[in-house]
Amino acid sequence: MLSSLSVAQAKLIDVSVAIPNISSIKEKISYTGIVYSAISETEPAYSTASKILKNSRFREAEFNGVKLYFFESALFDKISNIYANSDEHFHFAVFSYACYHLAKVLQVDVIHSHDWHTALTNVIVKNLSPKLKTCFTIHNLAYQGDHPEEICGFLRQDPFFLNINNLFHINKMNYMKSAIEVSDHITTVSPGYRDEVLNEPTGFFLSWLLKKRTDSFSGILNGINEDEWNPSQDKKIYSNYETEDLEIGKKENKTSLYEEFDLKIDLQRPLIGIVSRLSFQKGFSTFLNSFRQKFNLPFYYFILGTGEKDLEDSFFYESHNSSERLFFFKGFSETLARKVEAASDFFLMPSLFEPCGLNQLYSQRYGSIPIVSRVGGLKDSVIETWEEDKQTGFLFEAGLDHSLNFALDRAFNLFQNKEKFSLIRKRIMSLDWSWKKGVEEYNQIYKRIVSF
């Protein structure tokens, strides 16, 4: 999201993005040669955090008009996965301070932090430079960066000097909660999700605080880079296609996908693609129940993902015991994800909650009709209506097997109506999911908080 958003924003304003430099970054980075410190030279270095910052730096690069600042530090250079590390409460706190310092050096007008990992940046700003304006985006309220107090005592020390009492929430230190309290404006990634988190259980025990901030809390639907996600020029799919040759292109991509994985080629069966992190949030228990209940429907499923072991085990079982009706590939590959999008007739997202979701936008771009639960950004971007000239997909109620069953019935009936099926696929390929509207909404927020 941030990659495509910042590139779109850079066409109108100056944008700088700070990111940890981890070992799994494979792309060759062309640096400008400009280097910035991660902490002031005059700042004392008594604590471990300050000493680490003294030995860290930002290296500047540029991409599509965006200034990128890669944070080179001993904290990140030996890890291959930026998330779910045992010391991430400390790693991201240090990174957040470095971002604060970089923002001061660059003399930015607004610091825009994302999710709990950089939430402390806005808290540090409020504590040390309260005149600097801040925006905070919630990508998923289920992950708040809540940590035991006993491992967060370092926040009292240099260079943070935070009153950790302000971070307390339900007997833990909560990074996201603190940013929600102090940021000048809060956003989340769709209007639908914004409304949902104002109430429990979707608010994950922070709805009370978000209700206090409703006047400065916006929902802005994510966009995509339409040049990057474009089936007519995507070099990672098997065959390129446009709306004019959609049927031929889909057939070629589906055939090639089956051949690559030595699957039985049956083009009469509609293909449903699934590309996802396998977690409780994504609603796959509902899908597995529905898959078994609606086995009579001749769908073929191609699933790409990794995550919770019980879901992986369930998909492996079905992959080997469902009469070649489901294929599961454990792992993640962007190239394979694009191939699945290009080959699929439908794309399924059974999420119990979904802040925005991007795959339903990619799917529509590639002519794969989304079947999604009626939550968050999914219901903001997929329309099912009796007005045939407006339908862009299928909706069902989250967590309800029978509702998903009925959506699959409707999808199969559409597949059998070749003329209507083709019309909807061509319609969704022409939808505008660019960042044009979203960028303007963010810019208006920046202008408003800077003028205060």
Essential attributes:
452 residues; alpha/beta; Rossmann fold
How would you characterize the overall build of this protein?
The strands form four sheets. The protein has a six-stranded parallel sheet with strand order 14-13-12-15-16-17, with helices on both faces. Helices cover 37% and strands 19% of the residues. The protein is built from 16 helices and 17 strands. It folds into two domains: 2-223 and 436-450, 3-Layer(aba) Sandwich (Rossmann fold); 243-429, 3-Layer(aba) Sandwich (Rossmann fold). The protein is globular, with a radius of gyration of 23 Å. The model has no long low-confidence stretch (mean pLDDT 96). A hairpin with a 2-residue loop joins strand 8 (168-169) and strand 9. By secondary structure, the chain is α/β, with parallel strands linked by helices.
Profile the largest sheet: 6 strands, parallel
In DSSP terms (H or I, runs of 4 or more residues), the helix count works out at 16
Overall geometric form = globular
CATH architecture of the largest domain: 3-Layer(aba) Sandwich
Order of the strands making up the biggest sheet: 14-13-12-15-16-17
Low-pLDDT stretches are none
Structural domain count = 2
**The CATH topology of the largest domain:** Rossmann fold
- CATH top level class name of the largest domain: Alpha Beta
Radius of gyration: 23 Å
> What percent of residues adopt helix (DSSP H or I)?
25-40%
Decide which structural class fits the backbone. Answer: alpha/beta
- Our estimate of the beta-strand percent is 15-25%
Q: Strand tally, please?
A: 17
Separation, N- and C-terminal Cα atoms:
28 Å
Overall mean pLDDT = 96
Name of the CATH superfamily of the largest domain: Glycogen Phosphorylase B
